[in-house]
Amino acid sequence: MTLTWIGFIISLAVILTISQRNLPLALFLGAIILGAFTQSFSTMLERVLFTVTNPSIIFLTAAMIIIPVIGGAMKENGQIDSLVNNIRIPKRHMMPFSAALMGLLPMPGGALLSAPILDKAGKDIDSTLVATINNWYRHLFILVYPLAPALIVAAEIADIDVYHAILYLLPWALLANVLGYFFYLRKVHGKISHPAGFSRMGLIIPLVVILAAPFIDFVLKKFFGFGNEATLIGVSAGLFLSAALSHKKVNLWKVVVTMKAWNFGLIILGMFLYLHIFQASNARELIAGLPLPPLILAVTAGFVLGASTGRVHLPASIIFPVYLGIVNNITPFYFAVVYTSIYFGYIISPVHPCLVVTCQYFGIPIKDIIKDLAIPTLIMFFAVLLAAFIA
Predict the structure, then answer these.
(1) Domain total for the chain?
(2) pLDDT tens track of the chain, all 391 residues?
(3) Which has the closest alpha carbon to 209: 249, 230, 248, 236?
(4) CA angle, 252 as apex, 256 and 51 as ends, to 5°?
(5) Residue 383, C-beta contacts closer than 8 angstroms, at least 6 positions apart
(6) 265: which residues sit within 8 A by CB, 6+ positions away?
(7) What is the C-alpha end-to-end distance of the chain, expressed in Å?
(8) Which domain holds residue 281?
(9) With a threshold of 0.85, does the pTM exceed it?
(10) Are 94 and 262 in contact (CB under 8 A)?
(11) Do 347 and 307 form a contact (C-beta atoms < 8 A)?
(12) Residue 74 phi/psi, 5° resolution?
């Protein structure tokens, strides 16, 4: 038990420290350290082989390499400039709108599609603030989005109607929006300069390129039962459309090198390796076994698991069954406070894919964005914890 806690804490410390220089290496080392403390060499080797040979992960890794190339190509051929020039709303609204636009059609790595837009719109703003806005608002509306896979899965486990759950999640989403304005958006001033007149096609073409990937991803998964191969097909289509609809020829290999696109694929492999080694350890049982009242335990452990795994599905699949085993049923209010706690642990997680690839894109240390996210995230956590105490 002691070794598990030691390994778990050291693994997160290593991720936070090494990631300042090399994010993929940090994730791989964190996973190996956690495995060394919690399981046999043969189990750890099996987890490594499972991760690197899993077709779903391979498809997602390939997709994650292509996504930054789309953003880089759109910057090179002028489509990002065209989009920013033709969305005629203030900078303070443009930045969260762009991030949320990608979030409402959720797909893995979607933060990389909004990052170039925020980068362009916020070119005179501190890059850490821009990255933080991208991460916060990318996820804010997914919390109450009825087609969000994590919400659907969690509600199914808890036997709660999704739309009933959303009614109880809305106040937390509104609170998060207020916090986002106070901590982030109020620091954004000025208007986006528009060097040319409005062009309808100048707006439509980049929007088609950006939305093609998540739209194809959603349709193939929702109506045709595809897995992560849908994501690969979607981003490949997006890259093709960017080239086909461009008036300027772009050297894609140069874009790949400039964006260091391979790093994004390695990040996904490292993140899943950590997740799979965590699943094979007894860390989740130790967290679930902490001596706290059921709802307080569910809220606290949910936040810890969300932060440690960078996932919503996994903590939900642990916390809700454990909680159900204690109290027999979950009310929509209890579901909302537990799910919100998991969700905001996930948002600030150092192994959350969107957070780490956003840091990679903007070239900032992961600790900087976590520092910016810490206060509003902890306010959200203590708010739901207080609600759990009062309930």
Answers:
(1) 1
(2) 788 889 988 987 888 778 767 878 988 998 999 999 999 999 999 999 999 999 988 998 898 888 888 888 888 898 877 877 787 777 788 888 878 876 665 555 667 777 887 887 777 788 899 999 999 998 888 888 776 767 877 887 788 888 899 999 999 999 999 999 999 999 887 776 666 778 889 889 988 988 888 888 888 988 898 888 988 998 899 999 999 999 888 999 998 988 788 988 888 888 788 878 888 888 767 766 767 677 888 898 889 989 988 888 778 877 776 676 567 678 899 999 999 999 999 999 988 888 888 888 888 998 899 999 999 999 999 999 999 988 7
(3) 236
(4) 40
(5) 172, 175
(6) 61, 62, 64, 65
(7) 32
(8) 2-390
(9) no
(10) no
(11) no
(12) -70, -30
Q: Which two tokens stand for residue 44?
A: 């750890």
Chain center to CA of 36: 27
Structure tokens at 163: 């739309």
Which residue matches tokens 């894919």? 353
Token reading at 61: 């890794």
